[in-house]
Amino acid sequence: MFRGKFMTERMGKGLAKASILWGLLLGLVALLIALYILFLILPPPVPSLVWQYFTSLDVERARRYQMVMRFSSLLAYLAKTGLLLWLWWSGRAAALASGILRLSGQRYFLATGLFFILIWALLKGVAFPFSFYSSFIVQHLWGFSTQTLASWWVDYLKASGIDLLLSGIGTLLFFWATGRWPFSWWAVAGLILAFWMVVETFLWPVVLAPLFNRFEPLKEGPVKSMVVELSQRAGLEVKEVWVMDASRRTTKANAYFTGLGKTKRIVLYDNLLRDYSPEEVEAVVAHEMGHWKKGHIVKGLLWGIVGGFIFFILLYGILRLTAPGEIVPGQPYPPHLLVVILVFVQLISFLAQPVGNALSRRQEVEADRVALELTGNRQAMVELHVHLARRNLQEIAPHAFIEWLTYSHPAPWRRIKDALKEGEGE
Ligand SMILES: [Zn+2]
User: Fold this and answer.
1) H/E run at residue 240
2) pLDDT digits (tens, 9 = 90+) for 264-278
3) Are 410 and 394 in contact (CB under 8 A)?
4) How far is the CA of 113 from the centre of ligand 1 (A)?
5) How far is it, in rounded angstroms, from Cα 185 to Cα 53?
6) Residue 143, phi-psi category: left (phi > 0), alpha (psi -120 to 50), beta (remainder)
7) Ligand 1 centroid to 312 CA: how many Å?
8) pLDDT tens readout for residues 219-238
9) Nearest residue to 174 via CA among 161, 193, 160
10) Which SS3 state, helix, strand or coil, does residue 320 take?
11) Can you tell me the distance from the alpha carbon of 260 to that of 197, in angstroms, rounded to the nearest whole number?
12) How far is the CA of 357 from the centre of ligand 1 (A)?
């Protein structure tokens, strides 16, 4: 009797603390979203440097395109978060989960798996109109997409299938760990996530990427010779340069550096090779070599692993405060907590964006700097950023807040300014 009363009081205090924490998280996200919308609607005056390279039509077109894309992804985010909050606060998540447990004859892991599939499908459903609009309709309206509706569906279903499978396995592992290690599952979850991130980075270029695109090794020719020369200058053994058939989906050009150890490689979009000058392609390759030389993938992985541990520790704390009566040591967490966990994921991933993006932007600045050292051609670097911004309709000079919150690369005008500055002393 006494013990029961004591527990209730402690639980009550925990719950009060939990409400304050949830309120704080929700309030912060709401504040950032309000500022985000405000600065999207009221863009700042464009720096004068921009007018040396872009027309007002370039600036306007990019702003309009980005406005559509950003509002679409913001609405998808709000729809998903709203759905999860509703399921949680209305008690429907708990009711659904206990219904599924009953139907599955109280088989815990089967019920958890089924409940996960249900929530996953609901989230997919509310996000679908926005996904379809931004990745198919808008891309066609703006002349980027080269894809038929059928091929879009094939991509969508393939990506969804992979997501369902991988996140389903992750969810079941997570719930299993909460029962096996009631007080230290956060450490186990952090370790499993770390292991998976390393494996995924290693396998991505050879297993996952080929499911969506065809890759061919760069053929002998002037581009290949340029790559070999650049890699010698950089002191890197770059054996793997692949060309990806990006043009079967989009007219947007790009390139990336990916993989780990034996799967490390530079990937160039075929439309980059087709539409950009040899000097611009050289600047791109040199930039990717910059990422390679500075070990950015390994550094990014380490940051991701640290972030994963921090995330799970916070999740552990907030779940214990939020659902004290439902957590029984030695038993896995009740399946309906999945919804609470997903709300937390939504809020924390939004709030963590500025950190991740700041780290990423720093790497991009570094890679641009290495590229300039390697090529010594700042004119080409400037032309490349102008060309990419114009063709891909990147917003050239967004509000500093928008850049801080959402840009994984510095805004185009900043990269142009840096390229001009790098050469000052030469
Ligand atoms: Zn980069």
Assistant:
1) none
2) 999 999 999 999 999
3) no
4) 38
5) 54
6) left
7) 29
8) 999 998 999 899 999 998 88
9) 193
10) helix
11) 11
12) 12
